Amino acid sequence: MPAVKDVMSRDVITFKADAAVDEVAETLARRHITGAPVLDDEGYVVGIVSEVDVFTKSGRTAREIMSPNVITVGEETSLEEVATIMAGERIRRLPVLTGGRLVGLISRSDVLDFFALSHWTCETCGSYQHGLQQPADCPHCGGTNFRLDRSSPGT
Hints:
Shape: elongated
Number of domains: 2
């Protein structure tokens, strides 16, 4: 089953908790991203700051406008679980932690890219289907052995 580590971004834009809101706004706009983790001085995730936080909350620093209740996942978390969390909590990104430290970020667009560019191919008949989870059986031949291919079918 595909895991977060297979598709997450490892080069993560972050903000220190004392970063000025102007810096946050400028970075989000310049990098064309909608939010980023906020780290304390020891490098632990203490919040998430988004573009909505920038223009709807008052404050001078990332700490003052961030959302402090951060849902995180580990590198081995399945993409199916990530998709469920994101949909259920209506969030766009999840910090990925190992040993309490940030090692990556997975976004809705990462999950969508995986879905769009991956498919499960039946080893018996060659038919394929998209999904975050391996199918139980092939709707064409009933086969149960699949491989995960990482490109659009026919390319």
